[in-house]
Structure formats: C-alpha cells, structure tokens
Amino acid sequence: MMTTRLTPLPPESFRSKPWKNGGGITLDIADATAPGADPAGWEGMVWRLGRTAIVQPGPFSDLTGYERLQAVIVGSGLVLEGSSGAIDLRRPFTPVRYDGGLPLVSRLENGPVEVVNLIVDRALCSADLVVPMPGEVVALKPAIHILYAPGEAVTARCGGEAIAVPGGHALRIDTEGEIALTVEGGRALLATIRLR
C-alpha cells in the first residue's frame, strides 16, 4: 500500500549557518547531505531549503553543480546581476530558477529583502518551487514535498485530510503515490525534491 508521511518542521528544528561565502546567515528549514558529510557544512549537500535575509548588495556564493530556485518573501526589488544579464526577482512570491555556478551580485532596489532558497545537486535530484494559489489543486507525485508558511498560517487539504501549518513553520510531505494538495488559506511556498 502506498503511503504518505507528514512530518511537522517547527522553527526550533531549523538550523542557522553562514553562507558559503561568509556574507550572511541562512536558516535551513530542511536538507539532506551525503552519508558522512557534515550537515552544518556545504560539502556533500544534496539539497537544502532555507530562508535568508539579504540586507546589503554583494556577491552570491559559488554553487557550481547546483541549481537554485529562489523567491522573495519579504520586501521587493531584488535583482541579481551577472555577465550574461540580470535575473529579476523584483516581485515577491515569484520563484525563479538559475544555475548556482553563475557569478552574480545582488542589487537591492527597495532595501533589504528576505528570500527562500531551494538548492539542489543537479546530478542527484531535480526540484521545483511554486506558490500554490488558494483553491488550486496540486498533484503531488512521488517525491519529497515541503509546504512552508513564511508569514501567516496556512490551511490546506492533503489527500482529503485537513492540515494546518502555523506561520513560520513547514510541513514535510513524503509521498509514494500521487496525492492531491489544496491550499485553502494563507500564502505558502511548496518545494518539491525528486531524487534521481
């Protein structure tokens, strides 16, 4: 029988760690590392979902070999500038996907922002980061899914079961078969990680 496992992720389970380049601090919501790797480090990272504040312009960490999916959740006006053009993150809750190895420098048009980052080793997994609209039915296929409520509480139904994610908390949903998720209230981010 195919099962779905729900695991609450309260803020006290999150882990603070320095950015890879030392320019700031990230709050890891959930992650996975290779066997034997230090979960608090950057070596051996398989995937990581985190929240971070960007308070001043500066270079982004070199994450060659990784894919980054990112969305602004507090503030607005973030632009990432690189030699091949700009990555536009001006609009809040509008996820953008880009190569973690690109040399980028942040520009803050309206002051500090907070972002959610989903970083995955593209050789080991693929990922998506979406903002489900209230009433929208999202088909969760076999994968690791993390429903994050960055501000207000989120209410939803998962396979017909009512769920509530308090503000600032997350819920990990591990699925073996397809199941429907419907956000009923609040603004959420849904991260999906598929291991290869």
Protein architecture, described:
The radius of gyration is 16 Å and the shape is globular. It is an all-beta fold. It has strands spanning 4-9, 15-18, 25-33, 45-54, 66-74, 78-82, 85-89, 96-99, 105-108, 113-121, 125-130, 137-140, 143-148, 154-158, 161-165, 170-175, 179-185, 189-195. The chain is built from no helices and 18 strands. The strands form four sheets. A six-stranded antiparallel beta sheet has the order 2-3-4-10-5-8, with no helix packed on it. A five-stranded antiparallel beta sheet has the order 1-16-13-18-11, with no helix packed on it.
Number of strands: 18
- Spans of at least 5 consecutive residues with low confidence: none
The third-level CATH topology of the largest domain is: Jelly Rolls
How are strands sequenced across the largest beta sheet? 2-3-4-10-5-8
- The CATH class of the largest domain: Mainly Beta
CATH architecture level-2 label of the largest domain: Sandwich
Number of helices: 0
Could you state the CATH homologous superfamily of the largest domain?
Jelly Rolls
Give the class from helix and strand content and strand pairing.
mainly beta
Percent of residues in helices: under 10%
N- and C-termini, Cα separation: 22 Å
Number of domains: 2
Question: Radius of gyration in whole Å, from Cα?
Answer: 16 Å
Element string (H = helix, E = strand): EEEEEEEEEEEEEEEEEE
Work out the oligomeric state of the chains in this entry. single chain
Largest sheet: 6 strands, antiparallel
Mean pLDDT: 95
Query: What fraction of the residues are assigned to beta strands by DSSP?
Result: over 45%
User: Globular, elongated, flat, extended or rod-shaped: what is the shape?
Assistant: globular
